Amino acid sequence: MGESSRSRQPQTWQIVYSGQWPKIYAEKLRERNTRETDPYHDVFTSFASLYSTLEQYRGKIKKLDYENLRRQEDIKSIINDPGKKLTENDKNFLALQQENIQLVRQHENTQREMLRMAMKVKDVVAKETQIINLEGKCLRLEQENSVLKDEFTTLQLMCKKLEEDNKKLMVENQNMLEKILLHKKEEVDVVNLHNETMKRLKEHQMFYELESARKEENNSPEQSSGGNASGGAIGRGFFSRIFRKSESEGEDYESRHSSVSSRCRLYSGPAIVPGSVTNKVEQHTSEMYSLAFSYQGTMFATGGADKCIKIWRSNNLPDVESVTTLTGCNAGVMSIDIDERDQYVVAGSNDAAVRMWQISGGQIRSTFMGHDNKVYSVKFYNHSQRIVSGSHDRTLRLWDVRTNKNVRTIFARSSCHDLAVLSEQGTDIVSGHFDKRLRFWDERQDTSSFEMLLDGKITSLDLSGCGKYLACSCKDASTIKFIDLKLRQAIATFTADGLRMGEHTRCSFSPDGQYIACGSTDGSIFVWNTRTLKREEVPKVHSNAVPVVKWHPMGQSFISLEKSKKFYVWSEA
Question: Of 317, 300, 312, 293, nearest to 573 (Cα)?
Fold first, then answer.
């Protein structure tokens, strides 16, 4: 069932892309016309023949009426003159009169036949209407059946995936239990070592005190003082060895159980809204869709429809320097992210692939295949050991960087346009979708833990530096929702006259979360203060649409991408 539904879709798209659909639809209409008119062809032919015969009879009746009237006048004259004999014409008249009577009867029969045929035609039209309604109902049922087949196929895949995940979870659970038991054993060993050490210390202290008292009582003062010095040296040496061992054991235990600190972007001081363009660069050969800064702000990457990624050094903004160009994508680059050590770049493209490059060598390190359509968003997480990607094929996929494998596939039920990772462990992932919904995920679950319905199609997400707030740009209403992640609700909505968002418009927070910036299709840039909820003035310098505005991690400048192959560096003059 699933295979038939999947096979119909490629054939339909082949017909559309080949340009033959007008001829095929015309042929289908001709077949339908033949199918619906042929059964009634004999009825309409008989009706036309009867109507023609009726017209002939009407002409004859008129002629006979005229002859009848003339003959009646002749008969009246004969009646008035009984002595007059019937002529040949009179006899013919009487014969014609009889024929007229027969024709009148035939006329009545013909009218009755026509009435019966008209009733049949009415029934045929009613049945034809009923057939058309039934065909429409059948078409709707076929469409509903197709949707149900697709849902059934999806549920089968989800069921199979759940069974596989259940097996994996059982194995992971067993491994986790073994690790817990091992850690508990180590913890018990450390506690036992500590108790044994304290016991030895007390025993040695008691022995030392008893030995000192005995020597003071039995020996001379000179011997006693010497004995005390020797005993003190032995005691200090023993204590120092014992404490050093205890401290080393404690440090080992603490190092084994310490948590790894989460990564964070570095910024210095409050952010400012730059007032002017201090540099303008044009090196891409086509439109640009994506931009990402490194975590320290020393470099950034840009990508677009020219299928390449350019790496730039940004140590001395507004001056930028091209470092290298990464190639290998077979379609436009829609999303970019840089790992926390500034060693790798990951990108999602319109060829349904996710690729990771090593920046120093410029070579592709890994290619992750599995999506069936455009990849709109990619993000590193789990200290750059994993990647999450969102696609137009309505799925989220989690990739392991070390094994280059897809470790989990989540069916999101709608095209995913952007992602935000709220925790390094992947327990909180947020996705924005074309069905206007914001979905919260745990990578260990296949269903969303929470959903929010917003004003329009979500084109981008951005997490504030403190991790407490989320900015969501909505295309249909041209608004930006300011969401409190603890409350999981929008606490403010930013919009402005003239703000028009495109399919790839992306908003961004300043590093301290005080400002939100967003570009417009008319070339304007809009900035709002999240504390006062007021708009900040930014001069208009772009002549084309601005899909991306991204703040530098230091908060003193930002970069805006223009669709016409250029990007602008904004800072204080």
Answer: 317
State how far the alpha carbon of 178 is from the alpha carbons of 183, 188, 189, 252, 426, in Å.
9, 15, 16, 20, 23
- Among 526, 515, 523, CA closest to 546: 523
Write down the pLDDT at residue 269. Answer: 67
Q: What is the pLDDT of residue 191?
A: 67
Mean pLDDT of the region 193-201 = 77
| CA–CA separation, 442 and 455 (whole Å) | 24
Inter-residue contact 284 to 275 (CB < 8 Å)? no
Q: What is the pLDDT of residues 278-333, one digit of tens each?
A: 999 998 999 999 999 998 889 999 999 999 999 999 888 889 999 999 999 999 99
Q: What is the pLDDT of residue 406?
A: 92
Q: What is the pLDDT of residues 432-453, one digit of tens each?
A: 999 999 999 988 888 899 999 9
What CA–CA distance (Å, rounded) separates 487 from 569? 36
Sorted by sequence, the CB contacts under 8 Å of residue 178 that are 6+ apart come out as none
Q: What is the DSSP letter of 388?
A: E
CA distance 208 to 210: 6
Distance of CA 389 to the CA centre of its chain: 10
Beta-sheet pairing, 525-529 with 535-536: antiparallel
Q: Which of 510, 484, 518, 472 is nearest to 265 (CA)?
A: 510
Q: Which residues contact 115 (CB under 8 A, 6 or more apart)?
A: none
Quick check: 366 and 411 in contact, CB under 8 A? Answer: no
| pLDDT of the residue at 381 | 93
> Is the pTM for the entire model greater than 0.85?
no
Peptide bond into 318 cis (omega under 30): yes
Q: What is the pLDDT of residue 263?
A: 40
Torsion over CA: 375, 334, 384, 424 (sign): negative
Residues in the chain, total: 573
Q: Are 36 and 134 in contact (CB under 8 A)?
A: no
**SS3 (DSSP) at 427:** coil
What are the φ and ψ backbone dihedral angles of 47, each rounded to 5 degrees?
Answer: -65, -40
Residue (of 561, 519, 539) closest to 277 by Cα position:
539
Tokens 């592709």 map to which residue? 364
Write the single-letter amino acid at 217: E
Look up tokens 């992210």; give the residue: 337
Q: How far apart are the first and last CA of the chain?
A: 65
Query: Residue 16, Cβ neighbours under 10 Å: how many?
Result: 10
